[in-house]
């Protein structure tokens, strides 16, 4: 019996670990694919601006970047990876057709010229020709392979934790069962009608162990996370954050698989497993965002003309369902139209996090106000507020003022860290005012 319990727990733990690593790797690969496409688009625009003639394109080509120039009939005027004379007519290439008709086109397919799968990006130039850039899919795999040691380390950590947990719980389960089996004649154990005296001790023991497990899971969920002090501790803290919901998932799954869970509890346990799985996805997405912002050679287009009012409206619309569920109205006030130069995608994510945070920590009956004025974006709520001693640290990664409350609201502990990084990228200043029981105001001032 002891060995069966151990192997069952190890099996569930390994499955949970494999699921977590696979799911995280899929998120990483998707984000890196989007980043590769974004980089290719930005590079295409840069080369298009520098274009003078076919000869001017050669310095921009490299082993990883292929450049092709195509005229309106589809003839290849320049090709960095092959002889121009040997190239077929490109008029019917999907991205070329789209570039001639719409001014811009993209595609992903196998290339006979380079004998590899490639991402294509094509732009119509002022002289009517089409400039096409492409990168091989292999460059994506090279970037993805850099994250594999961290994922493997995470997998090994979770598996080892599952093994240790299995041995510990195996002994905890079997010891009381053996002890009670030696005292089957105790009448206080036979208090349930319809239960045979021989299995009454086992039933009672399982009930006690079930309560103990629930208490243990609750204690683990409410346990405070260690404060992040230095950037090189980020990976360790991320592993800890991922392991917490995985432990909860493993615990509830083990209760269901072993039959300890009552039938009426299974739906509740499944809901908790689903909730923790969603939390894993949120953490993985936030980790990817911070990783891209931390990259020293991150290629970010910060020259877009961004309308703060438009971004604010989009964020409020995206979060309208959350606001309705919490019965917290969100209003927008524009005192002066503001446009800045920056990255619209990153700015949307920053403002989304600020408004989402305000809604999360405002109780029913409160409200959230968004103000746009002269290159300044302000989010003000009537929520629980932040104690003064905690305010200097709320923008640290994984730092929470009240960890149990943050997890209850679905936070990952990375939202304000992302806000801080995006503000730094744009050279913006963050000003915080908060009073416990009154509310919080966070103002982002752009130059």
Descriptive overview:
This protein is 52% helix and 16% strand. With 447 residues, the protein is α+β, with helices and mostly antiparallel strands. It has a 5-stranded antiparallel beta sheet with strand order 2-1-5-4-3. The radius of gyration is 28 Å and the shape is flat.
Summarize the model shown.
By secondary structure, the protein is an alpha+beta fold.
SSE layout and pairing:
Layout: H1 2-50, E1 66-70, E2 76-79, H2 94-102, E3 104-111, E4 116-124, E5 130-136, H3 137-145, H4 148-181, H5 200-222, H6 234-257, H7 263-294, E6 304-307, H8 308-318, H9 320-326, E7 330-334, E8 339-342, H10 344-360, E9 368-372, E10 376-381, H11 403-408, H12 415-425, E11 429-435, E12 439-445
Parallel strand pairs: 7-9
Antiparallel strand pairs: 1-2, 1-5, 3-4, 4-5, 6-8, 9-10, 10-12, 11-12
Helix pairs in contact: 1-3, 1-4, 1-6, 1-7, 4-5, 4-6, 5-6, 6-7, 7-12, 8-10, 10-12
User: How does the overall form come out from the CA principal axes?
Assistant: flat
What is the percent of helical residues? 40-55%
**Integer average pLDDT:** 76
Quote the beta fraction. 15-25%
List descriptors.
12 helices, 5-stranded mixed beta sheet, alpha+beta, 12 strands, 447 residues, flat, 52% helix
